Amino acid sequence: CGTIDPGFENYVEAYFKRDPALKERVIFTGHLNRDQLFDFYRQAKIFVLPSRSEGFPNAISDALLFKNAIITSNKVAINDIINKRMGLVVEPDDIPGLQAAMMTLIRSVGSTKTYGEEAHRFAINELDWNLNTKYLYEEMQKRNLKNRFERDRSK
Fold it and tell me: CA-CA distance, 60 to 80, in Å (whole number)?
């Protein structure tokens, strides 16, 4: 989702020329507002984010919340949590591995559903902003950082 880089448009055109049947199955949406994006997440069962390097992208958090099984590369920071618990992890640039992971989840509705449910549980229990800020506040209190911060601020 998002704008298509002008340099990518020629690639998209050639892609559809090679396989015109994909034109009805692959959607380049362009920019989506929040509600439109969340509608796509709700409809999806599998979220794929192969990456050569990535921190913790917001898109994965959203996909987890909407019960999507995840396929990502081992260069995404959360890959060790996802692997075989919420989805599958592949090597970057491993096209056959990515294809195999996608086919595995497409063919195994049960696994996809189980991964999606675990993804949702993880999002609710571990990624909730209120829980994380409470944890951070408690850690600051334990380490006496709150008082130190207030002292530094008053100087």
Answer: 14
